[in-house]
Write a structure and sequence with these properties.
- By secondary structure, the chain is mainly β.
- The protein has two domains: 74 residues, Sandwich (Immunoglobulin-like); 155 residues, Beta Barrel (Lipocalin), CATH 2.40.128.
- Helices cover 11% and strands 40% of the residues.
- The protein is built from two helices and 19 strands.
- An eight-stranded antiparallel barrel has the order 8-11-12-13-16-17-18-19. A four-stranded antiparallel sheet has the order 4-3-6-7, with no helix packed on it. It has a three-stranded antiparallel sheet with strand order 1-2-5, with no helix packed on it.
- Strand 12 and strand 13 form a beta hairpin.
- The longest helix is centred in the N-terminal third of the chain and has 23 residues.
- It is elongated and about 60 Å long.
- The chain starts with a helix and ends with a strand.
C-alpha cells in the first residue's frame, strides 16, 4: 500500500514538472510574413479628369495591397478618390502600398494647366486666381497694423500699436501664388525678393474667444522658409512661422501669434495686411 502511494506521488510530481516545462516554453508564431509587391507590379492610375484640369483621380487596382495617398493638400487611405488641386503646373502624387510584409512607394505626376473645378475658396483669398498671385502690404487704412494686444480676446493691437510707417519694413510686400505649389515671396521696398517659401493653412484649427466662446481664431497659417513682414513677436526677434488667422477674405488678412502656452488676455502680436 505504501509502495502504491509512493508511486502515485512520483507520478504526480513528474506530471507537475512536465507542466512547468511546457508553461515555460516560449510560444513562437511560426507564421511567415507575407511578401512586398515590387514597385513595377503596382497597378495604380493617377490622371486628370479633364485635359489639363485640376480635378485629379487616384485609383489603386493592386490586389491585396492597401492604399495611402499623399496628394499635397491632404492624405487618404482610400483605394479610389478624386480631389481638386488648387495649383498649376506639374504636381507629384505619392502612393504608399501597404503589403503583408511591409510597404512599397511610388509617385505619379500630373500636369495642371487650368483650374476648371472649384477648390476651397481660402486658396484664392490668399493667392488670388491668376498666375501673378496676390500681393499683400501693410493695411494703411487702420491706425495700427502691427503691435500687441489681448491674445484670444482682441482683433487689433491696442496695447502697443505700431503704424505702417513705423514698422521695420513699411513698404515691403508679400506675394502668395499657386504656380506649381503654395508659394510665398517676400519683397523689400525696392521690389527685390528677400525670401521665398511655401504656405499651408488649416481652417479646422479654430480657437474661440476666451471671454464668450465666439469665433476668434478661424484657422491657422503656417509658412516654411520665410515669415510675414515683421515676422516676429512684438518686443522679440525670434522668427514666427505659425499664425492664428483672425480674418481672411479677398482684401484683408489679420493674423495673431503668441508664445506657446499663452492664455486668454496674455500678450499677442497682431499683423494687419491689405491686398493690392
Amino acid at each position: 500500500m505504501k509502495t502504491m502511494k509512493t508511486m502515485r506521488k512520483i507520478l504526480l510530481l513528474s506530471l507537475l514538472a512536465l507542466a512547468t516545462l511546457v508553461a515555460c516554453d516560449p510560444i513562437t508564431d511560426e507564421t511567415p510574413l507575407g511578401g512586398v509587391v515590387s514597385e513595377k507590379d503596382l497597378n495604380i492610375n493617377v490622371y486628370n479628369t479633364t485635359s489639363g484640369g485640376n480635378q485629379i483621380t487616384m485609383v489603386n487596382h493592386t490586389k491585396g495591397v492597401g492604399s495611402y495617398w499623399d496628394y499635397i493638400i491632404g492624405r487618404a487611405a482610400n483605394d479610389s478618390l478624386t480631389v481638386a488641386l488648387p495649383f498649376l503646373g506639374k504636381q507629384t502624387i505619392r502612393f504608399v502600398g501597404l503589403c503583408d510584409g511591409g510597404t512599397v512607394e511610388t509617385t505619379r505626376t500630373v500636369d495642371i494647366t487650368t483650374i476648371d473645378h472649384p477648390t476651397d475658396v481660402t486658396w484664392s483669398y490668399f493667392a488670388g486666381t491668376g498666375t501673378a498671385g496676390k500681393r499683400w502690404t501693410w493695411n494703411r487704412d487702420v491706425d495700427a497694423c502691427y503691435g500687441d494686444g489681448g491674445w484670444q480676446a482682441e482683433w487689433v493691437p491696442d496695447w502697443d500699436p505700431v503704424a505702417a510707417d513705423d514698422t521695420e519694413d513699411p513698404n515691403g510686400s508679400m506675394v502668395f501664388d499657386l504656380n506649381g505649389g503654395p508659394n510665398v515671396t517676400i519683397y523689400d521696398a525696392d521690389g527685390k525678393a528677400t525670401a521665398k517659401g511655401t504656405f499651408t493653412f488649416d481652417m479646422n484649427d479654430k480657437l474661440p474667444q476666451c471671454d464668450d466662446g465666439t469665433d476668434w481664431g478661424i484657422g491657422t497659417l503656417t509658412l516654411t522658409g520665410c515669415m510675414v513682414l515683421s515676422g516676429h513677436l512684438f518686443g522679440d526677434t525670434a522668427p514666427v512661422y505659425k499664425y492664428r488667422i483672425l480674418t481672411i477674405n479677398d482684401h484683408e488678412m489679420v493674423l495673431c501669434a503668441a508664445p506657446d502656452g499663452a492664455a486668454g488676455w496674455d500678450s499677442g502680436t497682431f499683423w494687419l495686411f491689405k491686398s493690392e
